Structures are given as C-alpha cells and as structure tokens.
Amino acid sequence: MTIRELTFLRPLSHLAMLGAIALSLSAPAVAADAQRIVSVGGAATEVLYRLGVQDRVVGVDSTSLYPAEARDKPDVGYIRSLSAEGILSLSPDLIILEEASGPPETVAIIDKAGLKVAHVPSGYDLGGVPQKIRDIAAAVGKSEDGNKLAAEVDAELVDLKNRLAGVKTKKRVLFILSLVDGRPMAAGTHTAANGIIELAGAENVFADVKGYKTLSPEAAAAMKPDAILMIDRSSAPHEGEGLLSVPAFAATPAAATGSLFKMDALYLLGFGPRTGQAARELASKLYPDLNLAAAK
C-alpha cells in the first residue's frame, strides 16, 4: 500500500503559527455544523461516504482507498505517521481519528489545537463496527442514518454468527501480514486480522501472542494451520506464491488442501461498513460446504 505524496504541506516552520491559530478557535458547539472534515482511517472515511457527507470531507489519510473517489481528496499521510501541520493546514472544523492514528505526539498536538476531534475505537469484535459507525455518525450530525447503517452491519454479523454456530471444529488460520526475507510476519491478538478470523468462525493459531511478530517458516508451520490468510498488495502482487510448497509448510493441513487465501487489505481489515461481507467471504472460503457465499 503506497502513500500518496503530500503536495500541499507548508514548511514545517509554520507549525507553531498554525497551532496558535487553531488554539484561538473554539470547538464547534454542535458537531453537525462541521463543514470541513479531515478523516483519518479507511473505515472512518468509508462510513462518511456511506452517510452521504463526502462533500464535507476536505482531507483523508492514505489508507482511505474506498470508495475510489476518496483518493481524490487531499492526503494527510499514513495513519500511523501523521503530520499535525498537514492536517491543520486544511483548516478543518472536525477531525476524525481512528484508534491507530499516530504518532502520539502528533495526536497530542491535534487534541490541543482547540478543534473538534472525534476519537474512534478500532472495534475488532462483533459489536465494535456498529458502534464505530454510530460514533462517526453522531460526530457529523447523522445519527439517524448512522443507526440504520449500524443496524445493517450488525444484522449481517449476527446472521453469520448464527450460520456458523453449528461448526464443531473451527478452522485454524495463520494470518501473514508480509514476508520479510522469507520469514512470515504473523498476526496475534489485538489485531484486525485476529478480529476478522474470529468473526469468520475460525481460530487464530497465533493467538498466544499480542500484535505482530516475525517468525521462522518452521515456527509458523509448526502451528499446523488449516489455512493461511494474506492481503493483496499492489506493491507485491506475487507475494506468497509458492509458500505452500516451501518445505516447512508443505506438510501443513493448509498445504494439503491448497488453502492460501488473499483478500483486499481495507476490505478484510478495515472494520467498516463492509466488514459483514468480508467476514462472510472469508468464512465461505474456510467452510465451503456451508454455502455461505450464496446466503442472504
């Protein structure tokens, strides 16, 4: 995933001036009045578009790739390496920050800038996405529409959970974020990958570890995953090809069934309005006999 160039940023020396201007402003009394919104986080941006307030969005981060029209907005940088100056230079009256936003010092500057800031939790569980949608909708004065959208997503996730209730043996999934010199970087708990695996009715084989960790192929294969899950990368479209034929993985259950699946990163890990669809699609790959792809 590439980061769009920040062509609109002013020199860093203006940071203090921008901060002083922002501090002189009082936060809007009603969030619904916000007409210049900066959205940081692909899911947050997607929610704003679904709520129909995209014309009020004046800037997004580089993970805001869906819908495609969002890519035409000014880019304030990658969600984990934001510039306070880049955001403040857009003169926002509302800044929406997903939980992963950083670095901390940048977030601290934004919080002290005297502007309306909505911090949105990641929500990597069954109730997390609907709550995220409601929080964002409330911040932009679209609570009624947000409740409807949240109810739709909640219904999708609950329906999938019910359909998976009869699964007696959960599939064991290894999520590999990337391969570093042939060594897989696997996802443990407290990650979006762990969350989507659980929503799809499966078990994360690396759940004993928090966050991401690089492993040797032998250590990863020793977990005996039934399936390996990766993300599609435009910068590395062939990543993972041949992985199941690597000696360490060749004897795994995943290799025996050819179960290496790749899905779009934001769709799979964004935890936004499409999460119910993504979880169902992943579940349909893991449990093809349940015919989940055709379920309504």
Automatic annotation (TrEMBL):
Residues 1-31 form the signal peptide. Residues 36-290 form the Fe/B12 periplasmic-binding domain. Keywords: Signal. Transmembrane segments: none annotated. It holds the Pfam family Peripla_BP_2. InterPro entries: ABC_Transporter_SBP (IPR050902), ABC_transptr_periplasmic_BD (IPR002491). It comes from the Bacteria. The keyword Signal applies. The keyword Signal applies. PANTHER family: HEMIN-BINDING PERIPLASMIC PROTEIN HMUT, VITAMIN B12-BINDING PROTEIN. This is Hemin ABC transporter substrate-binding protein. It comes from Flaviflagellibacter deserti.
